[in-house]
From TrEMBL:
Pfam families: DUF6867
Domain DUF6867: 9-112
Protein name (record): DUF6867 domain-containing protein
Keywords per UniProt: Membrane, Transmembrane, Transmembrane helix
Keyword Membrane listed: yes
Chain ranges passing through the membrane: 6-26, 67-88
Source taxon at top rank: Bacteria
InterPro entries: DUF6867
Length: 117
């Protein structure tokens, strides 16, 4: 399994989930609060995955050109950024238009009339 991810599990957890995962969190938040479209999450996630691969290679003797590791990093980081994007988008919709919308859970909003958004 470690050959597929191109590093050891502790390095994957530390670099991909904690370090670049925090960067993905902040990326999703920044994209949502600046009203960017959701598709911007994908290219930024790919760039973060490349940075994650480089950090594993430079600091922990990982495999730089691990295709499976890069794809796994990209999927995890894009997912983190997309989830945060949606949560902050819902927050921004309710904050920007308080007369029209109200929160409907963490990821949603609805019209004050009742229809879900």
């Amino acid at each position: 399994m470690e050959s597929m991810i191109g590093s050891t599990w502790p390095v994957f957890i530390g670099v991909t989930l904690v370090l670049t995962g925090f960067c993905a969190f902040m990326t999703g938040r920044a994209l949502a609060t600046t009203w960017r479209p959701v598709w911007h999450v994908a290219p930024y996630g790919v760039l973060l995955a490349a940075a994650s691969r480089f950090l594993k290679y430079a600091l922990y003797d990982g495999v730089l050109l691990s295709g499976g590791g890069f794809v796994l990093d990209a999927v995890v980081l894009i997912a983190i950024a997309a989830i945060v994007y949606r949560a902050y988008q819902a927050k921004m919709m309710v904050k920007q238009y308080p007369w029209a919308f109200e929160r409907a859970g963490i990821f949603g909003w609805r019209d004050k009339g009742g229809a879900a958004g």
